[in-house]
Every structure is written in structure tokens, then in C-alpha cells.
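Researcher: We plan to redesign the surface later, but first we want a full-length starting point. C-alpha cells attached.
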């Protein structure tokens, strides 16, 4: 694609990056076939290729309108287009640049600004979110069913965190909403790793990965969350006390793996951010490397004849963002689960961070399609790898939806 960027951007680092990405696009249209919003709306401007044209026009100095903002807002940033693209177009990085410029130049209405501001201040703040969730759980019995399903029940049992005594140690991202919504996910992770001879530890002062705020186009605020995490983790990283930073929410994992890119022009944090990204691992990557040990643990027990039939939902951030495909499935099979075939497994469930709140109609349509696909194999329950997807899917399914690491812990605990 030929480009001629406008003076306001062409000599900046963002402009140079955007120009390189735009030039890599060859207009082939392969991305249209895997774009969830294009499949629903049928409008090319709601496809990656269409949005790339809109961003090209914007970067070349043409007027930026609410129409451009609308079509960029409708993008899930699922990055299925990146998986499909034969030219390796880094669409996710381009849309981050485009959205940042649009946010500066196109005013939103008061209602939209208030909603986005509220989400930015509540979701990344664990204490505030936890307090509001507890209040919601108290009034939950009195709410209509459509609202009741969106407020998860408090877990019946809180899993104990194993003591740290192994020489091998890894650090875990606590996250922002996950400790309140599903506190047993990281505890189950610690339990599984403990059985494999690895101690999982936390770092004080670490919190939200920055993804929520960054993708609400408050990008500098999002970068500040990233810097805070780097500061909290760096002493352990610098002294080589840990092997990896383990992430159990794939939406957070893909962001932390991109800290190095997002902070590459920060003279203070660039080198540290690159190091953090290099050692950040999704929990599936850790367990895949320990697969022989998992199989050994499983062989110690008498595996029941009737296996749990499981439908695994691979989040977009796992399969398209981090390019981790088939790994969780391999681990679950090794642990004795019977996996169903999920049609159109590459398509987004519609959660996409705050998308389910900001674009409810499109999100609900994607949710219905995804639940139908996941339930088509008649599983006993559904597993996923991201807290946002988990909550979203549970709101649309009568089956139990859990993080796959919790199911792994149950299997290994019985071994």
C-alpha cells in the first residue's frame, strides 16, 4: 500500500511505525473472512481492510470524523485478522495508533465520556471493584434474571495458597478484577505448580496490567499502570530470583508480552520493559514445558473410564494475540479430559475487555454464536483461559464455565 503521511505524524515514532504497517498491507481481503464484526454487519468499514483504509486517510491528513471513530470502536481487537493475514500486517499495533489519534481529535458525547471514565477508574482498581462486586452480590437475589446472571456468586470455598519452599520460583500477575471475581484461579495455579516443584509468589504493589485503560484510549494512563508493575517486579527480575512472570488471564498476558514494544521509546523503562516481556509466560506455556511431569503424575492414579467431556474456548488473546494454539488442549488431554470439537473456534466470544459494555448488541450476538458452538458437542462443562471471557460466557450458558487451570488442579489433586 502506497502512503504519504501528513506532516503532523510522519516524522514521529508512531508515524514511522504506522507507515511500515500500512505499506505491508496488500489489499488481499483474506482478513474479511475471519473478522467477527464484518461477518455480522457486512460493512467493509467494519472489517480490518476497511478500517486500515480509514486509518490511512486519517494519517494522510484527511478529516477525522465520528464515522471513523465509530468503525474503530466497533473493532474487537481480536486480531483474528493477524492470524489470517499472509503479509504479516500488525493490525493490532496500527489500530492502537489510530484510536489514540481519533481520541484526541474527535469529541465524544457526555454519556460516552462518563461511561469510559467510570470503567477506567473502577475496573483497574481492585479495592473499588471488590467493594462494588460485594454490594452487587448482596442485592443479586432481588434483581431481574438478565442482571442477576451478570453478577457472579461468591465462591463457596477459597482455595489455600501453598507455602513457598521450592528452589524454583515464578512470579504471578495478580491482576485487577480476577482476585475479586475468581480468586481461586491463581491459587489453583500455585497448587498445580507446587505439585511440579515450582513455588508461585506475588509481588506487592503490582496490579492491573494496563490493558483496560490503554484500550479505552487513555493510553498514557495505561502506560503508567505498566510502569508500576515493572517497578514492583524489577527487584526480583534483576536479582534473577524468578524464572518467569506467570499470567493466568490471556488478555493480560498478551499486554505484558508487549510491554517492551509499548514502552520502547521510554528512556527510563524501555530496557526493563523488554526484559519483563521476555520472561512473561502464559500458564499454558509453563505447563506445556512440564508435560512429561504432568503425565507422570496422572499415571500414578487410576484414571476413571468415564472422562469429563470438556469444551475449551480459546480466547482471542491466546490464539491470535500470543499465537498459542493447541497447547492448552494438549495439556487437558494429557490430564484425562475428553475435548469436544468447537466449530468456528477462531471467532471472538464478544467479551473483548470492556467491549461487552460499550458495544452490547454486537457483543451479545457474538456471545450467542459462541455459546451455541461451545455447547454443540454436548460437553459436561466449558473451560477458558481468560477471566473476561469466563464471565461473559457464564452469563450466556447454563453450563459451568471455569478457567482450565482450576480443572487441572482438581485432576492433579485427585492423583
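Model: Full-length starting sequence:
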Amino acid at each position: 500500500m502506497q502512503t504519504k503521511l501528513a506532516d503532523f505524524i510522519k516524522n514521529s515514532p508512531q508515524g514511522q511505525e504506522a507507515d511500515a504497517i500500512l505499506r505491508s498491507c496488500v489489499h488481499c481481503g483474506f482478513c474479511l473472512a475471519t473478522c467477527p464484526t464484518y461477518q455480522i454487519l457486512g460493512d467493509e468499514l467494519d472489517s480490518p481492510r476497511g478500517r486500515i483504509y480509514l486509518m490511512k486517510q486519517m494519517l494522510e491528513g484527511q478529516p477525522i470524523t465520528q464515522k471513523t471513530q465509530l468503525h474503530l470502536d466497533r473493532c474487537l481487537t481480536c486480531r483474528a485478522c493477524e492470524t489470517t493475514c499472509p503479509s504479516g500486517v500488525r493490525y493490532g499495533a496500527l489500530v492502537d495508533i489510530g484510536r489514540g489519534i481519533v481520541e484526541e481529535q474527535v469529541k465524544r458525547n457526555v454519556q460516552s465520556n462518563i461511561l469510559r471514565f467510570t470503567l477506567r477508574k473502577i475496573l483497574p482498581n481492585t479495592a473499588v471493584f471488590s467493594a462494588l462486586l460485594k454490594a452487587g452480590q448482596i442485592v443479586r437475589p432481588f434483581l431481574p434474571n438478565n442482571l442477576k446472571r451478570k453478577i457472579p456468586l461468591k465462591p463457596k470455598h477459597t482455595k489455600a495458597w501453598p507455602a513457598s519452599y521450592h528452589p524454583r520460583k515464578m512470579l504471578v500477575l495478580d491482576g485487577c478484577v480476577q482476585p475479586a471475581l475468581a480468586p481461586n484461579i491463581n491459587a489453583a495455579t500455585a497448587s498445580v505448580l507446587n505439585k511440579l516443584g515450582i513455588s508461585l509468589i506475588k509481588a506487592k504493589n503490582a496490579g492491573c496490567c494496563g490493558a483496560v485503560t490503554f484500550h479505552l484510549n487513555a493510553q498514557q494512563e495505561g502506560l503508567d499502570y505498566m510502569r508500576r508493575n515493572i517497578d514492583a517486579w524489577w527487584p526480583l527480575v534483576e536479582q534473577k530470583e524468578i524464572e518467569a512472570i506467570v499470567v493466568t488471564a490471556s488478555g493480560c498476558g498478551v499486554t505484558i508480552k508487549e510491554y517492551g514494544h509499548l514502552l520502547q521509546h521510554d528512556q527510563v523503562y524501555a530496557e526493563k520493559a523488554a526484559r519483563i516481556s521476555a520472561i512473561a509466560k502464559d500458564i499454558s506455556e509453563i505447563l506445556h514445558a512440564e508435560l512429561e511431569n504432568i503425565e507422570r503424575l496422572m499415571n500414578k492414579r487410576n484414571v476413571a473410564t468415564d472422562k469429563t467431556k470438556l469444551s475449551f474456548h480459546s480466547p482471542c488473546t491466546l490464539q491470535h494475540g500470543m499465537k498459542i494454539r493447541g497447547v492448552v488442549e494438549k495439556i487437558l488431554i494429557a490430564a484425562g479430559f475428553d475435548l469436544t470439537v468447537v466449530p468456528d473456534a477462531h471467532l471472538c466470544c464478544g467479551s473483548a475487555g470492556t467491549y461487552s459494555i460499550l458495544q452490547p448488541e454486537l457483543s451479545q450476538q457474538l456471545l450467542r454464536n459462541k455459546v451455541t458452538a461451545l455447547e454443540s458437542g454436548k460437553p459436561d462443562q466449558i473451560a477458558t483461559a481468560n477471566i473476561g471471557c469466563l464471565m461473559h460466557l457464564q452469563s450466556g450458558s447454563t453450563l459451568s464455565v471455569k478457567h482450565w487451570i482450576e480443572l487441572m488442579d482438581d485432576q492433579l489433586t485427585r492423583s
